TrEMBL record:
Domain annotation Cwf19-like protein C-terminal: ranges: 133-221
InterPro entries given in the database record: Cwf19-like, Cwf19-like_C_dom-1, Cwf19-like_C_dom-2, HIT-like_sf
Domain of life (superkingdom): Eukaryota
GO MF terms held by the record: RNA lariat debranching enzyme activator activity
Family: Belongs to the CWF19 family.
Pfam families: CwfJ_C_1 (PF04677), CwfJ_C_2 (PF04676)
SUPFAM superfamilies: HIT-like
Domain annotation Cwf19-like C-terminal: ranges: 6-122
Protein name, as recorded: Cwf19-like C-terminal domain-containing protein
Any one of the GO BP annotations: mRNA splicing, via spliceosome
GO CC terms in record: post-mRNA release spliceosomal complex
Length: 227
């Protein structure tokens, strides 16, 4: 079994909601479980296809994650990209390593027609909030730009380009959701704050079952089963 406890990946004092081993974790939200990561629907999803990828064990961020975890995040990203493409959509991902303690990469499918407005929406929202996002190249890795333990935000657009910042002064915690919920993208601004759109448990179970069904043809984790 995979184990890693680098300096930034210490077990937190209080039980962590995102550690899959936590008995209190909301397991009915889990869509698929791999070797070192799992996919789950977030509380208060932006859309019916909103998922997040989390490490199974307690790891702070992608930058502090070992290669096996990063590789599996990429596998999930590819699989959810294919799933989005099937319905004519494109996948946007983002990670906020700021005032969080457990690795979580959000993945949201948007209409392909909205992708042209995407970069502008991110840039404008950043400017309004008073910080700058820089575009990073395909060949640049997060770990080259930021040290382990240093906070950052990164979004990956459907064309593979990444928008990045590590200036977190006044960074809005709902930034990624705010951009995607805006009128030119998903147009669901009432869902910017996840706490305001938490669903009933029955509805969550229904959506997760639909997600599991839709993800099945793309789910690489099933190939690892030995039976
Ligand atoms: Zn955790």
């Amino acid at each position: 079994m995979f184990h890693y406890d680098g300096p930034r990946n210490k077990q937190p004092q209080a039980p962590c909601w995102f550690c899959l081993s936590n008995v209190d974790a909301e397991k009915h939200l889990v869509v698929s479980v791999g070797n070192s990561c799992y996919a789950a629907m977030p509380k208060g999803p932006l859309t019916n296809e909103h998922v997040m990828i989390l490490s199974i064990g307690h790891i702070q961020s992608q930058v502090s994650a070992p290669v096996a975890v990063r590789d599996e995040i990429e596998k999930f990203k590819s699989a959810f990209t294919l799933m989005a493409n099937k319905t004519g959509k494109a996948l946007v991902t983002f990670e906020r390593n700021f005032r969080t303690q457990h690795l979580q990469v959000q993945m949201v499918a948007i209409d392909k027609a909205s992708t042209r407005a995407l970069k502008g929406a991110f840039m404008n929202s950043a400017a309004l909030a008073g910080f700058e996002l820089v575009t990073i190249g395909h060949d640049e890795h997060l770990s080259d730009l930021v040290n382990e333990g240093c906070p950052y935000f990164v979004a990956e657009l459907p064309d593979g380009s990444k928008l990045f910042t590590r200036s977190m002064k006044g960074f809005p915690l709902q930034f990624g959701r705010e951009v995607l919920a805006s009128a030119p993208i998903l147009d669901c601004e009432e869902k910017i704050d996840w706490k305001k759109c938490v669903l009933e448990k029955e509805k969550e179970i229904e959506l997760v079952n639909k997600l599991k069904e839709a993800f099945k043809p793309f789910d690489f984790t099933a190939e690892d089963d030995s039976d």
